[in-house]
Amino acid sequence: MRLVSVDLDGDERPGAVVAGPDGVDRVLDLVAVTGVATLAELLADDVALAAARTAAGRADVGDLPPLADVQLAPPVRPAIILCLGYNYLGHTEAGLGQEPYPNVFIKTPNVIGAPGAPVVMPRAATEVDYEGEIAVVIGTTAKNVDEADAMAHVAGYTLFNDVSDRGWQNRASQWALGKSIDGFGPLGPWIVTADEVPDLAGRQMEVEREGVVTVRASTDAMVYGVAFLVHYLSQIITLRPGDLISTGTPARAPEVQALHLPLTHGETVTVRVTGLGELTTTFVSAERL
Amino acid sequence: MRLVSVDLDGDERPGAVVAGPDGVDRVLDLVAVTGVATLAELLADDVALAAARTAAGRADVGDLPPLADVQLAPPVRPAIILCLGYNYLGHTEAGLGQEPYPNVFIKTPNVIGAPGAPVVMPRAATEVDYEGEIAVVIGTTAKNVDEADAMAHVAGYTLFNDVSDRGWQNRASQWALGKSIDGFGPLGPWIVTADEVPDLAGRQMEVEREGVVTVRASTDAMVYGVAFLVHYLSQIITLRPGDLISTGTPARAPEVQALHLPLTHGETVTVRVTGLGELTTTFVSAERL
């Protein structure tokens, strides 16, 4: 099931995306059928999820609004966003090699942006860059969970653009500020529930900048997998429904990296992963608004 | 004015601490006199703050419960906690010297603990350490503010123990996990409002471990000051009421550092700053609970 959060004049309601026989994605509102007000609550509630699944299966698709006509909110609004650095073989961001433990950094909650919403590059930004990633959405509270039990706490997966300002990121040893600029984390468009993703392996990720593919990688190159990460992190941080673990970005090909320049006003980046959809973001300069 | 958040069976209400003629601190509930439900809302509301000040000045102190009998909550529950590394001259945590920009890291919101509540060191913890700091509490939303206007966005100051697990902190280049363990951020006991703190300069900080002073420093050794930090950060992150900027810890004296060992079950650490009060925390091992 694909779950979205629909923005109805600021009221964020859970919805299911249902493909009609015409191939057009439409959105079923889930508030009435589940009795649950937000997508984060829905993710933590197995009974409501089952009701949503049944209703989505039975929906009279022709009556539903097309997804393209619906204003989406970010699927969740996490309090905690933990991101992996160097988590694909071959990714040598900042020139470092593989490390013996996951290299985890934090993005603050102000980064989260709705799918399709532009990212505004502030005046103080210096070198804005994109990182296409798969984000794990926590479904139920995870504290001290074993690796074998970890997947039961995963609600599903969505796409994340770990937008980064390389200038701010590299001003000091800690990357925090370059990673936490307002809106520097477009998320979505939907959460694919974990029952439809038994394993992240064997998926293709592509990142396209202005129509040119700059990253092409298989999730098989992921170093630390989802179950391990949930276990590892939950030893010290209680993960709650809606919290995110973003699994890191694959490297750009060296010949692409050699030509890489910071993002400029009007450029568009799409992150695309087999079975998880695609997330397109336009970057705009605050000076031009 | 000293403002606290009182925990009444999970309901967190704003209160003012008022010293009686007997020298005993007592707590005035501010919900009725201000019409505001939480301390974070109160901090953002000048009219309510003025009403609180008037009520605190007129309170019949003898009728109020002693502070010692009141259960305190953390004064605020920030969504964003930005912390400074290396922000006192002479502090060479991790052996690094002074950097050309503030070295800012993030702690996740799960760290925040009530004043007086114990810090539980989880089983996975390896080398737990304390860092006494002064935290700036944001009062009104700050985005792109000039240094000259920055102080208008500061509600006040409180004490923070930036508890850190050095083992986790140093597993990778990013300190995030060692800084973000559940409960590793005791905060309080109160917020001293900014009108009573025209300047942080000239204050003495002492940190005491098991009755032995291990840190003694003047705030005059602070590198980046409050107005600059609010300005600097607000260029890229919208700071909201209740958000925290923790201004960093002074170094332990070299002879103290040479004998330093990780915290063990039952040890107590007190952070004390002139005019801002003191914050005492007991550390307990999860294994011993």
From TrEMBL, chains A, B:
One of its GO terms (biological process) is small molecule metabolic process. Residues 81-283 form the Fumarylacetoacetase-like C-terminal domain. PANTHER family: FUMARYLACETOACETATE HYDROLASE DOMAIN-CONTAINING PROTEIN 2A (PTHR42796:SF4), FUMARYLACETOACETATE HYDROLASE DOMAIN-CONTAINING PROTEIN 2A-RELATED (PTHR42796). Keywords: Hydrolase, Metal-binding. Pfam families: FAA_hydrolase (PF01557). GO terms for molecular function: hydrolase activity; metal ion binding. This is Fumarylacetoacetate hydrolase family protein. Belongs to the FAH family.
